């Protein structure tokens, strides 16, 4: 037992001592050229600016391969007014020493305005969501990181309550279930979270039964996050500035609505669009970002029911926090303020979930996505 304890202690120490690269996806133009990099030391909470990692167009969402050797980015290119499918996905190799990214290949996203992508836990397949035309496409991933041609494509149909926001389907997020048998897709235009059977080996998608769960008309589903226990799913709604808590049926890949809660203080009457949602690794807290109110909404999680209780709303010290990330240690939250070109670092209170600004502010042009890669 003592030998096992010592091994666990050494392993925990080595994990805590690991450094990380943090990659920042951006919208290009207005000073940005592509993906930027920082080095993060979790022991001190400090970041070192490493500059431009690679030039690429509108890498607005990023995902890292589970082996840490490859990074994937949507290229959110839009020619929707001409009904062209112009978006793409790029694959890069990661140099852990220099942080530089090298383009391996790219594939068309089979849609317009790709905005989100996800990889399975072994890095064998990838799914992308195309916002403008409301579709998803799947791909197999080769051992050398290359993206193969698409293996599946699904086009959503319909419209929602708000004409100028929900004139058609707008797939905004793809989330794999913990057992990876199902893919859940938040569609802002349809006010639905759709469920698909997913075959990881073939990267195939087929309709599930039930095929979707509805949310309130005009809510505008945006991003999803699983609780670490796999029993609950949280959905942030962009238009209504709310979060839905769902119970998840792992056998059926189905969601049951438990609660809807606002991301805003009751006295706020201004314009707001929500963006990102994350569950703390401990499962004790949920965070959501508000664009307009320009804050991070903090919630406590009921450990049995999975429902949320508001804790606080914290100003992000910048404008338009489209994305934020919790670092791999669970000690820090970084808010990416798109319109003020900065990333503000907050310390997370492990007991309450509350956020305190550390005073460290990173400069990055039009930051819209943050992701971490462990390095030696």
Task: Describe this structure in a few short sentences.
With 376 residues, the chain is mainly β.
What characteristics describe this protein?
376 residues, mainly beta, four-stranded antiparallel beta sheet, 4% helix
Structure overview:
- The chain is mainly beta and 376 residues long.
- The chain has one helix at residues 2-17; strands at residues 19-26, 34-41, 46-55, 62-64, 70-75, 88-94, 101-108, 114-119, 125-130, 135-141, 147-155, 171-176, 182-187, 192-199, 204-214, 221-226, 232-237, 242-249, 254-262, 273-279, 285-291, 295-301, 308-315, 321-326, 332-337, 342-348, 355-363, 367-375.
- A 4-stranded antiparallel sheet has the order 3-2-1-28, with no helix packed on it. It has a 4-stranded antiparallel sheet with strand order 4-5-6-7, with no helix packed on it.
- A hairpin with a 4-residue loop joins strand 14 and strand 15.
- The longest helix is centred in the first third of the chain and has 16 residues, at 2-17.
- The radius of gyration is 20 Å and the shape is globular.
| DSSP strand content | over 45%
Mean pLDDT across residues: 94
Oligomer: single chain
H and E string: HEEEEEEEEEEEEEEEEEEEEEEEEEEEE
* Residues in helices, as a percent range: under 10%
Number of helices: 1
Beta strand count: 28
Report low-confidence residues grouped into runs of 5 or more.
1-17
Distance between the termini: 29 Å
Globular, elongated, flat, extended or rod-shaped: what is the shape? Answer: globular
Q: Compute the CA-based radius of gyration.
A: 20 Å
> In this structure, how is the largest beta sheet organized?
4 strands, antiparallel
Structural class: mainly beta
Strand arrangement, major sheet: 3-2-1-28
